[in-house]
Recover the amino acids of this structure.
């Protein structure tokens, strides 16, 4: 599977089928638009322009409302890609009017990838129970409030047991966002230096065979900053 980080919470996962996650509105986010087509686009919230600009993605992709899936059967299969969604909320502590959203688990290329959406609170035990041992790659909200506190994120990483964590939703050049989200170093400094992999590019190739045997933090460069 090839994974590419455009910026903020927007990634492209490709293995035969291509999936773009949480596309931002370029005018709102201050980041360049995505210039590659996709087969499937998933949004954690339809009300947040940082996570739901379907129209930015070229081509004629199938659109998936993860929160709608979470409130329905919880699982959907689109273009052969299985997507399992979990209802969450923005921070009830750091936001005056928190909104609902969803995190979602994608099965592609023999890997299970969990995207944390825009969750702002500790993951509840029932979510952790459903995810333990079922996530290979975790796309992690690493900028702190108004998303998850870093202590809560670290606990979730330990409980879920993903072997590869890719930080997202942290301070990058040109990103326009309310509040003062943290740089990635605030997150990465919590782990041993030998656990940190700096890709030096926006993308990486990941297969079941190349997954690390213990936790590694893979830091990608934003493609659209």
């Amino acid at each position: 599977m090839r994974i590419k980080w455009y910026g903020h919470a927007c990634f492209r996962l490709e293995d035969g089928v291509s999936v773009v996650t949480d596309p931002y509105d370029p005018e709102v986010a201050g980041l360049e638009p995505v210039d590659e087509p996709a087969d499937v686009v998933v949004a954690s919230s339809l009300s947040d322009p940082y996570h739901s600009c379907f129209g930015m993605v070229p081509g004629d992709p199938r659109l998936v409302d993860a929160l709608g899936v979470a409130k329905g059967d919880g699982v959907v299969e689109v273009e052969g890609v299985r997507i399992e969604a979990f209802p969450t909320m923005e921070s009830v502590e750091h936001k005056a009017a928190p909104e609902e959203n969803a995190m979602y688990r994608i099965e592609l290329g023999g890997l299970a990838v969990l995207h944390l959406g825009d969750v702002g609170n500790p993951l509840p035990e029932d979510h952790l129970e459903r995810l333990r041992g079922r996530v290979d790659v975790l796309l992690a909200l690493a900028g702190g409030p108004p998303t998850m506190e870093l202590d809560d994120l670290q606990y979730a990483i330990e409980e879920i047991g993903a072997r590869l964590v890719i930080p997202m939703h942290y301070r990058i050049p040109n990103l326009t966002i309310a509040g003062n989200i943290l740089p990635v170093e605030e997150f990465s400094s919590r782990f041993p230096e030998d656990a940190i992999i700096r890709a030096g590019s926006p993308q990486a190739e990941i297969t079941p065979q190349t997954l690390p045997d213990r936790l590694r933090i893979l830091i990608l460069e934003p493609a659209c900053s």
User: Anything to note?
Assistant: The radius of gyration is 16 Å. DSSP finds five helices and 14 strands in the chain. The mean pLDDT is 97.
